[in-house]
TrEMBL record:
An annotated Gene Ontology molecular function: oxidoreductase activity, acting on paired donors, with incorporation or reduction of molecular oxygen
Membership in a protein family: Belongs to the bacterial ring-hydroxylating dioxygenase alpha subunit family.
Pfam family, one: Ring_hydroxyl_A
Source taxon at top rank: Bacteria
Protein name: Aromatic ring-hydroxylating dioxygenase subunit alpha
The Rieske domain, residue ranges: 53-135
Keyword Iron-sulfur tagged: yes
Sorted UniProt keywords: 2Fe-2S, Dioxygenase, Iron, Iron-sulfur, Metal-binding, NAD, Oxidoreductase
Length: 426
C-alpha cells in the first residue's frame, strides 16, 4: 500500500520515485534517488536498518577468540567466535560504559576485549568481566546488564554470516529466497571454502545503488570493458559467441546474471591464459565435480558465470574467480567498497596463484574492470548533478524473456528498494 503521508513524497512532486508501465515497456527511476540527502537518510533507516546485511564469513574467525571488525549498514560492529561455545557472535562495537569502540583492530584473536578508555573488560560472549575500582559503584548497580550488546539478529547460511538490526525480520533462509541456490553453487564448487587474507578497499564518488546496478549489468561489458576483452582475445580466448545467458529476479530484491563463461574459470574450465601445464589439473578438478554432483550440475559449476546481488549490498561474483564484495553509503554521492577473494582452503599453490591472478587482473583495484567501472559510476554521478534530465531508464528487456544483457535484474532491486522506502510502485 502506498504511504501517502510520507515526507519523502515531497522529493518527487510530479509523482513516485519508481514507475513501471508494462503496456509501454517502460521502467523509470527518479534521479533524486541518487542525489537526495533526505533519501540517503531514509535508506540508512529503512533499507540498511531493516534488511539482512553481510557481516563476514565463518572462515575468517575459524578459531575460538578470532575476531574481525567492520562497518555494517553504517554501524560499527565486530564478529567474534566464542571461546566457550564456539558460537559466532556479532556485537555493536561500543562499550556499555561510555561508548568507546571496544574492538580496535581489524582482525585478531582475543581472550578478553578491554575498552581502552576506562578499561572495562568483556569476554568473547560479551559478558562484562572487569571494571576497575568496581567498589566505587556500590552494591545496587546490576553489572550483569552491562555486557556488550548483540546485534538484534545474527544467522549464517553456508558459512556466510548475516546480521540485522531489525529484531522482527524474517529468518535468513526465507529472506535469501532464490539466492540460496546460487550461494550453494559457490560453496559446493570448492572444498572447505575460505576468505583469503587481505582485502581490496576503496571509495567511489557515486551513489551506492549505482554499484548495485553495475555489479549485475551485462549490458555494459562489451563497451566499458573492451580493453579486457581484447586482452583475452590476444591470449587466445574465443569470445566469438559473446555473453549468452539470462537475468533473473530471485525474490526480496536479490537478482542474478547467469551466462556461459566466455573465459576460463579456475573452478574447472581451462583457457589458454592458464597455460598448457594447467590443463591436466583443471581436468582433474572437473572430473571431481562430476563425481560428486553429476554431469549436469558439474557443468553448471564449471562453465557458467554468476553475478549475484543479495539485496541490498552484497555481491558474489562467481566468474574468473569468486569475489565477495560489499559497499556502504557514506553520503548520497560517496560509497566505501570492500572486496574479498574466496577459495578452497587447501588449494594447491599453483591453483591459488592462478585464482588470485584472475581476480586481480579483472576485479582488482588496478585491474581491467574496476577502474573502468569506477570511472563510469562517477561519470553518472556528475551527470546527475548537471540536472535537466529527471529519470533513469531501466527498461531493457521488458518486451521479452530477459537475457544476460537486459535489465530485469536491476528492476528487481529497484522494486524492493521502492517497497522499503515508499510502498507499492506507482
Amino acid at each position: 500500500m502506498t504511504v501517502t503521508n510520507d515526507p519523502i513524497r515531497q522529493l518527487a512532486p510530479n509523482g513516485p520515485l519508481v514507475t513501471e508501465d508494462h503496456e509501454r515497456h517502460q521502467f523509470r527511476v527518479h534521479r533524486s534517488t541518487m542525489t537526495s540527502p533526505e533519501i540517503h537518510a531514509l535508506e540508512i533507516e529503512r533499507v540498511f536498518g531493516r534488511s539482512w546485511l553481510y557481516v563476514g564469513h565463518e572462515s575468517e574467525i575459524r578459531e575460538p577468540g578470532d575476531f574481525v571488525r567492520r562497518p555494517v549498514g553504517n554501524r560499527q560492529v565486530f564478529m567474534i567466535r566464542s571461546k566457550k561455545t564456539g558460537q559466532v557472535n556479532v556485537f555493536h562495537n561500543s562499550c556499555t560504559h561510555r561508548g568507546a569502540m571496544v574492538c580496535r583492530r581489524d582482525a585478531g584473536n582475543a581472550k578478553v576485549l578491554q575498552c581502552f578508555y576506562h578499561a572495562w573488560s568483556f569476554n568473547t560472549d560479551g559478558k562484562l568481566i572487569g571494571v576497575p575500582d568496581r567498589e566505587a559503584y556500590g552494591e545496587a548497580l546490576d553489572f550483569t546488564t552491562l555486557g556488550l550488546r548483540s546485534v538484534a539478529r545474527v544467522q549464517s547460511y553456508r558459512g556466510f554470516v548475516f546480521a540485522s538490526f531489525d529484531p522482527h525480520i524474517v529468518d535468513l533462509e526465507e529472506y535469501l529466497a532464490g539466492a540460496r541456490e546460487y550461494l550453494d553453487l559457490v560453496v559446493d564448487s570448492m572444498e572447505d571454502p575460505q576468505i583469503i587474507n587481505g582485502t581490496n578497499q576503496y571509495a567511489i564518488n557515486a551513489n551506492w545503488k549505482l554499484l548495485a546496478e553495475n555489479s549485475i549489468d551485462g549490458y555494459h561489458a562489451a563497451s566499458t570493458h573492451d580493453t579486457y576483452l581484447k586482452y583475452l582475445v590476444a591470449l587466445g580466448t574465443d569470445l566469438a559467441s559473446g555473453i549468452n545467458g539470462t537475468a533473473k529476479s530471485l525474490g526480496n530484491g536479490h537478482a542474478v546474471l547467469e551466462y556461459a563463461a566466455p573465459w576460463g574459470r579456475p573452478v574447472a574450465k581451462w583457457e589458454p591464459l592458464f597455460g598448457e601445464h594447467a590443463r591436466s589439473e583443471i581436468e582433474r578438478l572437473r572430473a571431481d565435480l562430476v563425481g560428486r554432483y553429476g554431469e549436469e550440475r558439474a557443468q553448471r559449476m564449471a562453465d557458467t558465470n554468476r553475478n549475484l546481488l543479495i539485496y541490498p549490498n552484497l555481491v558474489v561474483n562467481d566468474i574468473m574467480a569468486v569475489t565477495v564484495r560489499t559497499f556502504i553509503p557514506v553520503s548520497p554521492d560517496r560509497m566505501e567498497v570492500t572486496a574479498w577473494e574466496m577459495a578452497p582452503r587447501d588449494e594447491l599453490p599453483q591453483l591459488r596463484q592462478r585464482r588470485l591472478d584472475s581476480f586481480l587482473t579483472f576485479l582488482g583495484p588496478g585491474g581491467f574492470a574496476t577502474p573502468d567501472d569506477i570511472e563510469a559510476l562517477e561519470s553518472c554521478q556528475e551527470g546527475f548533478r548537471s540536472g535537466g534530465v529527471e529519470w533513469n531508464e531501466i527498461s531493457r528487456g521488458m518486451s521479452r524473456h530477459p537475457l544476460a544483457n537486459d535489465e530485469e535484474q536491476m528492476r528487481a532491486f529497484w522494486r524492493r528498494w521502492n517497497e522499503q522506502i515508499i510502498g507499492a510502485i506507482g
